[in-house]
Amino acid sequence: MRNKALHYFHSNQKLILQASLALLFIGLGVYFIRHERAELGKVAESLAEASTAWVLAGIAFALLFSLVQGLMYQYSFRAIHEHIGLGMGMRLFLKRNLVSVFLPAGTLTNILFFNREVERKEGVERTQIYFASTIFSICSILSSIIIGLPALLWLFFSNGVSGGLAIGLFATIALIAALGWAVYSFKQGGWAHQWAERLAPSFFDVLKELEAQDFSRKDFWIAILLSCGIELIGITHLYIAIEALGAHANLEVAIVGYGIVLLLLMSSPFLRGIGAIEVALTYALTLYGFDKVTAISITFLFRFFEFWSILVLGLLALIGQRDNALLRLGPSFLLLALGIVNILSALTPAAPARLKLLMEFLPMEAIHASTYFVLVSGILMMALAAYLIRGLRTAWLAAIALSGLSLAAHLAKGVDYEEATIALATLAALWYQRNQYFIRPDPQFAQRTLFPGLAAVGGVLLFGLLGFHWIGQAHFGTGLNWRQAAISALRTFFLLDTGLPAATPFAQEFTYSMNILGAGAMLFFAFMLLRPYIFQAEPEAESRQQAQSLLGLYGRSSLDYFKTYTDKLLFFTADGQAFVSFRATSQFAVALENPVAADAKQVEKAVIEFDEYCRRNGLRTVYYRIPERDRPLYEKLNKKLLPIGEDATVNLDTFNLQGKDKKDMRNAVNKLERMGYTFRAYPPPQKDGFLQQLRAVSDDWLRDTGRAELVFSQGLFDEKALKEHTILTVESQEGKIVSFVNQIPDYRPGEANFDLMRKTADAPNGAMDFLFVKMLEYFKAQGFHYCNLGMVPMSGIEKATNAQEAALKLAYERIGQFAHYRSLRAHKEKFEPDWTMTYLAYPSTLDLAFLPNALNQVVEL
Questions:
Q1: For helices 482-493 and 443-475, what crossing angle results, to 10°?
Q2: Looking at residue 809, what is its pLDDT?
Q3: 716 phi/psi in degrees, rounded to 5
């Protein structure tokens, strides 16, 4: 249990870190707004009195902001001698900006959502789109550094360099010096160059590719200047926000404030710094003499110009591109927006006229309760927005409940029909997309953690109860009976104001500790309830025997041997005449190739039944390594298909070592024979001592290559299984085994197959070529007509037909971390195999953003 938990956290550590940082930023914002609640009514009045002319100027600059971003995209394409329209560039930016709030940025995400439209309308190849997007990102980072770091230096120098500021100044200078040294070292091919190549090979390959291309430095520098212009627009937005509220603006305040925003945006994983920016910018403005009300008002207006208005434009651009993947983003965006609206609405006073009318129908206690619910629900909604993207059923149910209750609560707390309208729209979007949310939570995990969780909550509340009762008189200036202490404990647990003034620093620290413990407990329960269910039904021995019998009757694939491997779960159709072999992750059931069935009609029936079974269990179905011949069947069932690599099969009847192109292979064979190496075949059963020798070779290979045992579409070193296999070896004159393969059953008539191919670190050059040649000759002598050499991932896509194929083709051809696939292809090409494309069948385009992690999980032990 402990190992599984550690594995879960290790596999999802990036997501957990991103979510934790985002929630921390949100928490900072909520605490800040709650702490300044008394000022928020004045903030609303201040915003209402903002200069219309300046606000319109800010909106105009927001449109200019989008325009310049579009120009920057244009020049990013021009840098590699491609051309797109200005409107296309603006749409690219707006949609990318919106999607990056919810999904991790990256090549795959960008290609999934944006490249298809560029290719179709502008005629630009997908690889060029990738390079242009990379240039765009590089320019954005450079401009953030160019503007952000000088802003901090300005802050340090303008405020003096004594005390803590001196430390900050020294750190900044050291950072700039280190950055300059790193750039010089990188350019000279020194330590920084080597470190970058090892740490980020894909980025390094992009730089090398850009160097190799016909690259326009002039347009690249124009893109950087435009990016700096975008940062200047951001500074202007802050300047306008200050002037719009009647405060005196100066350039220093605008530059320093925006520099802080830039640094927070660079560190924010997703949700774009919501919360943290509001806190940091408000604090920075107060340092320049602005009162709290004015500082908060300026911050809110600036964020409207710089973030929310751009986000709304992005939503409009995204709606214009109809796609199932994009539809799933709509409810998440609305829920995020409703969460923010709820928080702001709860922390600002109700309109007096509406409140007076409402008090004629509801008691004040009910109005206050509605306000508190709106606040807490807003926090939960912002956390739920990210979980909705993953299709979690519990997140959808919680979102439905919170949106519905928010609709009622907004009306009950102040007849806030504007906020209620947003809640209604969110509720409608969630209901319209209800079929997209069926990933179940993990009930066993929830049950196991329920008692410890309740115990933790009880402990926190007991701590608060005793604390408020015992220290009330001494530290809060008033004695509290048990009922009053319990109410205060509950209010601080849910981050609400107790109404008790802190008479001493200890009282303030005690209140903060209750807030932190309460927030931690709520986040723990949210994680517990939303953790995806991991399907773990172990098949019975009888089920494996039944599957083995069906393989004997209907097996026809080189992968069939692995369909009853120990790592697999088995699903049988209702009539028991077909089965699916699969592994499950938190979101997906990944099936290995086709179901085993009598014919295509039965395969189709098995797929339909398996899909329904997985849907009931809260899993999306994925079919891995579907052969080309079965592509129409999955298209008929509305599956999306992605080519993932080609399968190599050697025709043993025509294979030989004749011809100039086989000279190197002949030389390798002759060289090893002269050195005394021999090929041997060991039929089963194998002896334990022999298996120990093979284990030594396998361990040496794993250690030398730095790899780990993988499963799913391949086997691992298992003495029990190897004992029943024919083993083919290459041995030295002294009888030392330097390489081996194991022959496995192949259910395709006339075809031979093998699994492990391993060698020692000191095996002579050409040992694997020698082994393969002798193995093919051996199989031919045994009467086989074909030999399956396995799949080369990501290879064989000659001309991509959609954005997803372009991503794989680009990665295979250009990114260094996949170079070993190219080497594997070159090795297998020596034997002149026939190549057959294989596919990944999956339900939705958006699922591709999560499938790489799922596939990594199913191949791990």
A1: 130
A2: 61
A3: -125, 175
Tell which residue, 377, 276, 376, has the closest CA to residue 335.
Answer: 377
Q: Residue 535: its pLDDT value, please? A: 53
CA distances from 743 to 678, 694, 722, 819, 831 (A): 18, 14, 9, 28, 18
Residue 303, SS3?
helix
CA distance 635 to 622: 13
- Is residue 36 a contact partner of residue 47, using CB atoms and an 8 Å limit? no
Q: Determine contact, residues 588/712, Cβ cutoff 8 Å.
A: no
Per residue in 769-807, is it b (16+ CB within 10 Å) or e — as a string? bbbbbbbbebbbeeebebbbbbbbbbbbbeebebbbbbb
Fold identical between 443-530 and 647-839?
Answer: no
pLDDT tens string 261-272: 877 776 554 455
Q: Dig out the tokens for 187 from the structure.
A: 């350019």
Assess whether pLDDT exceeds 50 at residue 120: yes
Which structure tokens are listed for 430?
């969630």
Q: Quick check: helix, strand or coil at residue 825?
A: helix
Decide if 587 contacts 532 (C-beta within 8 A): yes
Using DSSP's 3-state secondary structure scheme, residue 149 falls into helix
Interatomic CA distance for residues 846 and 849, integer angstroms: 6
Reference 155, options 254, 297, 268; nearest CA is 254
Angstrom distance (rounded) from CA 114 to CA 106: 12
Residue 114 has a pLDDT of 56
In angstroms, the Cα distances linking 717 to 430, 702, 756 are 48, 11, 8
Lookup: tokens for 578: 């077909």
What is d(CA 126, CA 130) in angstroms, rounded to the nearest whole number? 6
CB neighbour list of residue 474: distance below 8 Å, 6 or more residues apart: 504
The architecture of the domain spanning 647-839 is 3-Layer(aba) Sandwich (3.40)
Domain residue ranges of the chain, discontinuous segments joined by +: 52-322, 443-530, 541-639, 647-839
Instruction: List, in order, residues 6 or more apart from 737 with CB less than 8 Å away.
Output: 693, 694, 697, 729, 730, 731, 760
Q: Which of 82-91, 345-354, 710-719 has the lowest mean pLDDT?
A: 345-354
DSSP 67-95: HHHHHHHHHHHHTTT----HHHHHHHHHH
Span 566-578, mean pLDDT? 89
Scored b (16 or more CB within 10 A) or e, 36-53 reads beebbebbbebbeebeee
CATH 1.25.40.180 fits 443-530, yes or no: no
Nearest residue to 46 via CA among 305, 340, 298:
298
* Distance, CA of 300 to CA of 293 (rounded, Å): 11
Task: Report the alpha-carbon distance of residue 559 to residue 593 in Å, rounded.
Answer: 8
Torsion angle defined by CA atoms of residues 671, 673, 676 and 680, in that order, rounded to the nearest 10 degrees: 140
271 φψ region: left (φ > 0), alpha (ψ -120 to 50), beta (else): left
| Residue-level pLDDT at 693 | 93
Averaged pLDDT, 760-768: 89
Which pLDDT score is estimated for 8?
Answer: 45
- pLDDT score for 623: 94
Helix (H, G, I), strand (E, B) or coil at 189: coil
Residue written as tokens 């700096």?
A: 228
Residues 6+ apart with CB under 8 A from 472: 478, 479, 480, 484, 485, 500
Closest CA to 500 of 477, 471, 469, 482: 477
**Residue indicated by tokens 């020596």:** 830
Helices (H), ranges, 159-291 = 164-187, 191-199, 201-212, 217-244, 251-267, 276-287
| Alpha-helical regions (H) of 476-587 | 482-493, 505-530, 541-554
> How far is 334 from 425, CA to CA, in rounded Å?
8
Respond yes or no on whether the N-terminal peptide bond of residue 685 is cis (omega within 30° of 0). Answer: yes
